[in-house]
Amino acid sequence: MRIAARYNGPPGSGNGGYSAGLLATELGLGPAEVTLRRPPPLETDLAVVRDAAAARALAGDELIAEARPAPAQRADAVPPVPLSDAAEAAKRYPGLQSHPFPTCYVCGTGRDDGLALHPGILPDGRTAAPWHVPGDVSEVTMWAALDCPGGWSVIAPSGGRPYVLGRLAAWIDALPRPGDTCVVMGRHIGGGGRKADVLSTVYSPDGTVLATARATWIALPAPMA
Questions:
Q1: pTM score > 0.85 for this model?
Q2: Edge-to-edge strand order for the sheet containing 209-219?
């Protein structure tokens, strides 16, 4: 398993959703839950070790991530909004003004070869963004698309404090067609301390749920004054 440099999140490490999805495909069991133990390194050959119920990605002796079958209870779908509302919300994407990781493959504003998901905040705290589906869409791409829209439901209210993905469980029912414009939703549902629990959902152009996810995001320590 190798994460190409293109698929970064924070500088120097893999986007959490993309990296989780890449490992999840090693399970081959459908819905999966991936826990990231270390920032996934880029352009590094990771050994994938499997047992009866899990797959682990290792850099030498260091555990980077582990994937298991998803919990039996599927993540709830975040209620959708029309595409026009999602497009309006994206104009208010907080990352346009200040972004902790502007080169992120999924939600970064400083690149033109990513997914360009710009989740804006709705009045009730949900996030919404249109997603123009790329030609090379895959299950791994879907894991990536489910990542940042949930995270921004926490990052935005926190004033832009950096958070990173800790755990992501995803249920993918179908892939969108290349060239489709989908709607991706996110919602903060709880947590405590430095941890925040979020949901995310990808909807097809006709409003069908294509994928749902539940994730835990972790706030990075505040810098020393």
A1: yes
A2: 47-50, 55-59, 62-69, 32-36, 163-172, 209-219, 195-203, 181-192, 127-132, 120-121
pLDDT digits (tens, 9 = 90+) for 127-182: 999 999 999 999 999 999 999 999 999 987 877 788 999 999 999 999 999 999 99
Contacts of 144 (CB under 8 A, 6+ apart): 7, 15, 17, 18, 21, 105, 106, 115
HSE of 82, CA atoms in CB hemisphere, 13 A:
3
| Alpha-carbon span 198 to 217, nearest angstrom | 8
Q: Are 217 and 151 in contact, with CB atoms under 8 Å apart? A: yes
Query: Among 217, 192, 183, 196, which Cα is nearest to 78's?
Result: 183
Cα→Cα distances 18→85, 126, 167, 201, Å: 26, 22, 12, 16
